[in-house]
Amino acid sequence: MARYFAILDGEPGAIGISFPDLPGCTAMGRDENEAYANAIDALSEWVRDARAHGEPPRPRPIGELRRDPDVIETVAEGGAFIAVPLIVESGRPAKANLSLDSGLLEAIDDAARESGLTRSSFIASAAREKIAQA
To answer: What ranges do the domains of the chain cover?
Structure first.
């Protein structure tokens, strides 16, 4: 799974995230968690648009970013590196055959029903959350 390094900075109430490898790709939030969730969406949209016009830049290794003068300046001013997973959904459903413990599947179905979701939607949202936390 591709991850892009980004720089998180700001202060409580106004946290920003920018991607040194993707000009103009930024996200904001009231706190770090909201900014991070918005960064996942911003990265996905930026890459989807870039793919429509060619191929987006590959993420640079963090060692290379640490030698970039612009990145050095931003980090020196208080910015911190974070890794943001690239999740670009195609909008096309795909079937997958999964083997799960029957008790776990029953718990998934119960939780999905309580959340007003289908089993597939519930599993997809749980997978997105797990990827974001990795």
So the answer is: 1-90, 93-134
Gyration radius (Cα) of the chain, Å: 18
Cα distances (angstroms) measured from residue 39 to each of 42, 43, 116: 5, 6, 27
Fold category of 1-90 in CATH: Double Stranded RNA Binding Domain (3.30.160)
Sheet holding 80-85, edge to edge: 26-29, 14-18, 3-11, 80-85
Q: What is the pLDDT of residue 80?
A: 93
Q: Where are the beta strands (DSSP E) in the chain?
A: 3-11, 14-18, 26-29, 80-85
Per-residue pLDDT, averaged over 30-53, amounts to 94
Report residue 101's pLDDT band, with 50, 70 and 90 as the boundaries.
Answer: very high
Per-residue model confidence (pLDDT) at position 1: 67
